[in-house]
């Protein structure tokens, strides 16, 4: 588990500007980030892991991420981007094993790295395709592989950009259940509003690069969603957008 604090964050990407005065993610908390395309969700995550230049402060357990060497940072926070470029046809097992790299000795896996990888493959229903090349898989299968790799990194904080993208509903639900049972602090950009509200305890909403709401999931209503997504919303057993 990890305490994450974002303060006076200012970040620019092209003509887009993200401004977050303060965000606090408590140890072990599970938080979803919602908002329209281009609202700053991915930019926020990338700044939080130190992949973008920014002013302000992002700290993990009181230590600024700028002060943490990359080799140590990889033991504290793992990150799954929205898109992963796959260049080589590594086996599924090898890709998931790569998640252990920060913990390996001189780049070589130890017995416990292999054992943990086998466990993660089993938990994410990848054993039957473990020997297949990742380039041979469907988009949803690839997403499950890279999510498993991220989890296998075994960090105190996990940041995810649309972790269930392209997954079938069954696999998406199973993945979220396993992911959110971890002790780690989890912050995830979600595209599916109903999945986000069903599995995450807290939701933050971004609009035009600004934080516009920070709400416990049980208290999210039609007004929040209608304002953020600029469309009428009706709540039945799930939220419906009209």
TrEMBL record:
<keyword id="KW-0813">Transport</keyword>
<feature type="domain" description="ABC transporter">
    <location>
        <begin position="3"/>
        <end position="233"/>
    </location>
</feature>
<dbReference type="InterPro" id="IPR003593">
    <property type="entry name" value="AAA+_ATPase"/>
</dbReference>
<dbReference type="Pfam" id="PF00005">
    <property type="entry name" value="ABC_tran"/>
</dbReference>
<comment type="function">
    <text>Part of the ABC transporter complex HmuTUV involved in hemin import. Responsible for energy coupling to the transport system.</text>
</comment>
<dbReference type="InterPro" id="IPR017871">
    <property type="entry name" value="ABC_transporter-like_CS"/>
</dbReference>
<keyword id="KW-0547">Nucleotide-binding</keyword>
<dbReference type="GO" id="GO:0016887">
    <property type="term" value="F:ATP hydrolysis activity"/>
</dbReference>
<dbReference type="InterPro" id="IPR027417">
    <property type="entry name" value="P-loop_NTPase"/>
</dbReference>
<keyword id="KW-0378">Hydrolase</keyword>
<dbReference type="InterPro" id="IPR003439">
    <property type="entry name" value="ABC_transporter-like_ATP-bd"/>
</dbReference>
<dbReference type="GO" id="GO:0005524">
    <property type="term" value="F:ATP binding"/>
</dbReference>
<protein>
    <submittedName>
        <fullName>Iron complex transport system ATP-binding protein</fullName>
        <ecNumber>3.6.3.34</ecNumber>
    </submittedName>
</protein>
<keyword id="KW-1278">Translocase</keyword>
<keyword id="KW-0067">ATP-binding</keyword>
């Amino acid at each position: 588990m990890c305490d994450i604090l974002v303060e006076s964050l200012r970040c620019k990407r092209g003509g887009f500007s993200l401004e977050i005065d303060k965000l606090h993610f408590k140890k072990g908390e599970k938080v979803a980030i919602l908002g329209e395309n281009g609202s700053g969700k991915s930019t926020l995550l990338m700044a939080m892991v130190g992949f973008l230049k920014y002013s302000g402060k992002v700290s993990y357990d009181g230590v600024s991420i700028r002060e943490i060497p990359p080799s140590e940072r990889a033991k504290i926070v793992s990150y799954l981007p929205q898109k992963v470029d796959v260049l080589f046809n590594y086996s599924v097992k090898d890709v998931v094993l790569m998640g252990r790299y920060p913990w390996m000795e001189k780049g070589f896996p130890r017995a416990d790295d292999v054992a943990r990888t086998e466990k993660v493959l089993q938990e994410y229903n990848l054993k039957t395709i473990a020997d297949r090349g990742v380039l041979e898989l469907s988009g949803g299968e690839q997403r499950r592989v890279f999510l498993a790799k991220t989890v296998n990194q075994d960090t105190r904080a996990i940041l995810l950009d649309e972790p269930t993208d392209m997954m079938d509903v069954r696999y998406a639900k199973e993945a979220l259940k396993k992911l959110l049972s971890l002790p780690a602090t989890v912050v995830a950009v979600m595209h599916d509003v109903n999945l986000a509200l069903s599995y995450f305890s807290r939701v933050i909403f971004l609009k035009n690069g600004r934080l516009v709401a920070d709400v416990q999931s049980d208290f999210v209503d039609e007004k929040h969603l209608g304002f953020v997504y600029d469309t009428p919303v009706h709540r039945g057993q799930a939220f419906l957008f009209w």
